[in-house]
Amino acid sequence: MTQKTIAATALSREIREHKRSVRETALETLKNIQTLDVSVGAFLTVLPEEELLAKADAIQKKIDDGTLTGPLAGVPVAVKDNICTKNLRTTCASKILETFVPPYSATAVEQLEAAGALIVGKTNMDEFAMGSTTETSAFLQTRNPWNLEHVPGGSSGGSCAAVAAKEVPLALGSDTGGSIRQPSAFCGVTGIKPTYGTVSRYGLIAYASSLDQIGPVAQNVSDCAALLEAIAGHDPKDATSLQRQDCQFSAACVQDVKGMKIGIPEAYLQEGLDEDIREAILKAADTFRALGAQVETFPLPLTEYAIPAYYLIASAEASSNLARFDGVKYGYRAPEGEGLHEMYKRSRSQGFGPEVKRRIMLGSFVLSAGYYDAYYLKALRTRALIRESYTKAFRTYDLLLAPAYPTTAPKLGVSLEDPLKMYLGDIHTVSVNLAGLPAISVPCGFDRQGLPIGMQLIGDAFAEKTLIRAAYTFEQAADVLAAAPAGKED
Ligand code: GLN
After folding, report:
1. Chain centroid, CA 73 distance in Å
2. Which of 127, 210, 227, 229 is the most exposed place for a label (fewest CB within 10 A)?
3. pLDDT digits (tens, 9 = 90+) for 264-303
């Protein structure tokens, strides 16, 4: 279920060398979406052809007159539907925002447009980014392009499926507790969760503000680096945005891991991990060794507390962030109901889906007067300790190697039956967000069903370049996707 297209940086080179036009590229992308998305279901909204072509022509003009010279000029990009796009519907895959058309664009979207990227549409996701399969979307079922009976992962499932099916070469996702890395792993694509504060959150509809980061999804490491480079940078509109001078990520795509020290947290290889994934991770470790890195396992303390700390903090922040959806300021308002409170109640009851309601209830509970100390405050303390245990690990290791998720993509329909079990699956990803660290998910093999396996490389704060260098070196050496099971990849 994939299409033959070339990767982003190669595509933009062809455009700049006038071997193809932006208009041609736009039409090809629309055709890809038309043929593939009927079965994949990655897009909630696609730009109308006329509008897309007008944008394509405007970009072409700027390329021709030498204004646009960068690696994203003319490249189609899909955007997760929790990232605001001016005059283009942005729903968070929720009924409550079904008709919301933002009057402004997120900073990351503005940066993409300034770089000449062609935004083609908005991708499906778990409602308000809460979930691990994209099945909590109020509107659409997205399927894994490698096997349509399986989920694409979540919550950025639409973005990762769109890139995996090669409907588009690039997409933006958001990662609060793994939502870029896990669906990237499930779909056999590459995704980066940047250091907290690297990409502006202005215009990203908040789930848990202290954890959320926008990041890139692509077919390979260098495309991912180019996309991250375009969206990174300080933004005065986001108070948590960092002043970083070291965002030349494409320059980190060099093949060299000699002398690098890589640690594998022991607990991440223990019970609950699929045997095929364990094997793939150990094989990746061997590849790194063969390339000159030192790899060893080590005990990373407190891993068992990451899930409870994450779900308490994320739900607490969500309950506060989602208070703004009240039927007055944005989106859906229940048609009948007497008085203001009744209207609030009905709008929220009808507008939010069950997973979102579960989180709002949990979050309100842990923030309530009687339970604040026992739950929320304790979770914050745990978060500080988790951050500390990473700091200690990075005194010894340049980066950490870990699975992205304990299983490959489950079948459609099975995960939602047991939400608690679904929460537990996030064991390998959430602590990275709690600690504000960067991590990249890269394909590292296939399980015996032919589904992709992803590994995660985790770095200390600001160590994206080390991650990109290691991931790029691995990708070039292992060429995992070239060994895809027959018939699955073109
Ligand atoms: N699965 C996690 C959750 O439901 C992660 C979500 C995310 O990163 N947006 O909270």
Report:
1. 22
2. 210
3. 999 999 888 999 999 999 999 999 999 999 999 999 999 9
**Cβ contact 78:123 at 8 Å:** yes
Residue 129 CA, ligand 1 centroid: distance in Å: 6
Sign, CA dihedral 172-174-177-179, equals: negative
38 vs 60: CA distance, rounded Å: 29
Yes or no: say if 16 and 69 are a contact pair by the CB < 8 Å rule: yes
State in Å: Cα 174 to ligand 1 middle.
Answer: 9
Q: Single out the residue of 443, 440, 405 nearest to residue 192, CA to CA.
A: 440
For residue 426, the ligand 1 atom closest to its alpha carbon is 1
* Residues near ligand 1 (Cβ within 6 A): 129-132, 155, 175-179, 207, 314, 426
Taking a C-beta distance cutoff of 8 angstroms, is the pair 313, 383 a contact? yes
Of 447, 444, 443, 439, nearest in space to 179 by CA = 439
CA atoms of 7 and 168, how far apart (whole Å):
9
Pairing of strands 439-446, 452-459: antiparallel
**Roughly how many angstroms between the first and final C-alpha of the chain, as a whole number?**
9
CATH 3.90.1300.10 matches 8-263+395-483: yes
Q: Is 269 exposed, middle or buried (0-12, 13-18, 19+ CB in 10 A)?
A: middle
Q: Per-residue pLDDT tens for 382-431?
A: 999 999 999 999 999 999 999 999 999 999 999 988 888 899 999 999 99
Three-class DSSP category at 206: coil
Q: Which two tokens stand for residue 373?
A: 């100390």
Paired residues of 85 in beta bridges? 88
pTM: 0.97
Residue spans of the domains in the chain: they are 8-263+395-483
